[in-house]
Structures are given as structure tokens and as C-alpha cells.
Amino acid sequence: xxxxxxxxxxxxxxxxxxxxxxxxxxxxxxxxxxxxxxxxxxxxxxxxxxxxxxxxxxxxxxxxxxxxxxxxxxxxxxxxxxxxxxxxxxxxxxxxxxxxxxxxxxxxxxxxxxxxxxxxxxxxxxxxxxxxxxxxxxxxxxxxx
Length: 145
What we know:
The chain is of the alpha/beta class. Helices cover 36% and strands 16% of the residues. Helix 1 (18-30) packs across helix 4 and helix 2 (49-56) crosses helix 4. This is Arsenate reductase ArsC. Keywords: Arsenical resistance.
């Protein structure tokens, strides 16, 4: 990681959808200032194909991303901001993250699109909504930091 960029970690339960999309979006939207990574409390097997697809629609490639556990980063990297994107991660993550400045722990509750039902297009619409919600949250957050 570059010395001048600040590390942001996105956390969710499985690290297969929301946190992966947030990582890709922040690296795209704020990569000049931040390096985003993501991890999960109980990492899944693979990044959800629809998460990859809806970011590809925006010109971002997260197809090489793999779910990771929080131990990959805990105490090993100087994290400036920690953002949980699901309630389970917010409740399960360590209350104290070594080196994390006071006030830099954030929670953005986002729907889990993996439960979407219906046609392929209806399921994709649920993933696009989460992507667009994340884009708006990241845009607002970047204005404040």
C-alpha cells in the first residue's frame, strides 16, 4: 500500500457481496486518497457472480477478488476507517481494532441482495440497488473525510 493512501476496511458477514462491492467502488471512486480492502466474519467460498456483474456494468472488475476473514488484516495493517455493511458484522467485529482512531468506526446497513427472488433480471435489480446505495454512501462519505 502506498504511504500517502489511507487504508479503509469494509466488513460484512461473508465478504461475498456488499463488502466486496464497497471495496471495488471506493478503490474506483476514491483510489487517489484511499486503499480499500474487505473481509468477513464468516467468509464465504467466492464472490457472488451478480456482485461481479453489476460492478462490471460500471467499468469495475472485481472478478479476481476472494472472500477473506478479518484475521487477514486485524493487527497487521494500520486501518484508518472501518465500515461495517451488515448488522452481523457490526455486532461480531472486535470492539477495538488496533490502531483505529476513535470515531472512525462506521456502520452502513445495506440490504443483502442474495435473498432476492424472481427472474434473473429482478435479482440483478436487487444487486444494482445495493451497488447504487453504496455509491451514494461512498460519495457522501468522501465529501466528509
